[in-house]
Fold this protein.
Amino acid sequence: MLESIVNDKADSYLAYRRLYALWCANNAALQELRPLFRMEGIDADGHIIVTIEFREQVRSLAKEIIPQFSMP
């Protein structure tokens, strides 16, 4: 899903919500996703105004997180 966000193959907001659901259910195993849900001014549990800046920030963070899931 992170790669889909980075490659513009998934809607940033919908993918963000799906990732948040995964993180809520498995946050101990998915700590790498934490930065997505700690963005300043964004309440992942609340109402989100989807702006170009939100989409760009989600895409940027996804790009930073992907290498953490790569196998050595």
Observations:
- Residues 2-69 form one domain.
